[in-house]
């Protein structure tokens, strides 16, 4: 038994040895845009010249392969485990998701907790990431045992911290407050809070309408004593880029969401440089 554990630890270290910083993207509820933020954060860091990977552990809703237009790809085996799918013509972003392991895209992952937890641990230990500056981990909603498995599996490595995503309204902010409690109980450093869907900027007149109210994320960050990373407005161009698998950071620099996303990425970069 002891030998098996030692072997697993050695493999774990080998596959994550080249990853400099790991960032978890969390929220207390679904539908707030964790996968969107994970994707755009990865693209922004890539355009800043960094080597980036995405680990999609949202096992019941693996949407990132479609957002990056690689949903028809398959993973392959090498001597050290699974080879991630590389995104784009320059193969600049490495991606691993359960979406690549399903026989059909509409298949549901109807698994009990132990099987999900085992796959999460396998994703951590058995993916050959190579050399990365950042590994972005897109998590499922809530504070379930899947989160505990993810944090525990990544704890021995270069875990920079967690970005928490909320929408402005009180219901979402309340759920993210519980996620803050989870992070503190798990000893997970909080990099900051992002308020997503923070107003809709009309593409015709540029007037901003606060559909879901405004300021809940910033108020929560102030109350909790953690950084507020910024507001990302609802933007039809961002939605379009995700639907079509296009690089929003490269193609829509004049969008109202562009400066918000690049500012969030810059704060992650600044934090990583301070921690090095």
Task: Give a structural overview.
- There is one protein chain.
- By secondary structure, the protein is an alpha/beta fold.
- It is built from ten helices and eleven strands.
- It has helices at about 1-15, 35-45, 65, 115-125, 145-155, 170-185, 215-225, 235-245, 250, 255-275, and strands at about 20-25, 50-55, 75-80, 80-85, 85, 95, 130-140, 160-165, 190-200, 210, 230-235.
- The strands form two sheets. Strands 1, 2, 5, 6, 7, 8, 9, 10 and 11 form a nine-stranded mixed sheet that branches. A two-stranded antiparallel ribbon has the order 3-4.
- α2 (about 35-45) crosses α10, α4 packs parallel to α5 (about 145-155) and α6 (about 170-185) packs parallel to α7.
- Residues about 1-10 have low confidence and may be disordered.
- One of its GO terms (biological process) is iron-sulfur cluster assembly.
């Amino acid at each position: 038994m002891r030998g098996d554990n030692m072997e697993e630890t050695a493999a774990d270290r080998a596959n994550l040895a080249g990853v400099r910083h790991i960032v978890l993207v969390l929220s207390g509820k679904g539908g707030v845009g964790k996968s969107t933020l994970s994707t755009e954060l990865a693209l922004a860091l890539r355009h800043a010249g960094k080597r980036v990977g995405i680990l999609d552990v949202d096992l019941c809703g693996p949407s990132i392969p479609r957002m990056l237009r690689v949903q028809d790809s398959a993973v392959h085996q090498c001597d050290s485990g699974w080879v991630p799918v590389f995104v784009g013509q320059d193969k600049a972003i490495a991606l691993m998701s359960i979406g690549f392991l399903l026989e059909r895209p509409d298949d549901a992952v109807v698994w009990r907790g132990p099987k999900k937890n085992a796959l999460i641990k396998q994703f951590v230990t058995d993916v050959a990431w190579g050399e990365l500056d950042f590994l972005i981990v897109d998590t499922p909603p809530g504070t379930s045992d899947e989160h505990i498995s993810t944090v525990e599996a990544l704890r021995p490595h270069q875990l920079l911290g967690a970005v928490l995503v909320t929408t402005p309204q009180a219901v979402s902010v309340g759920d993210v407050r519980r996620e803050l409690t989870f992070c503190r109980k798990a000893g997970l450093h909080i990099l900051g809070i992002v308020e997503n869907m923070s107003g809709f900027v009309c593409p015709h007149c540029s007037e901003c309408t606060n559909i879901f109210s405004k300021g809940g994320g910033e108020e929560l960050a102030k109350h909790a004593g953690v950084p507020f990373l910024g507001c990302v407005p609802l933007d039809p161009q961002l939605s379009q880029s995700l639907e079509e698998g296009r690089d929003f950071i490269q193609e829509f620099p004049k969008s109202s969401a562009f400066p918000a996303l690049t500012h969030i990425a810059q704060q992650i970069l600044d934090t990583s440089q301070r921690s090095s």
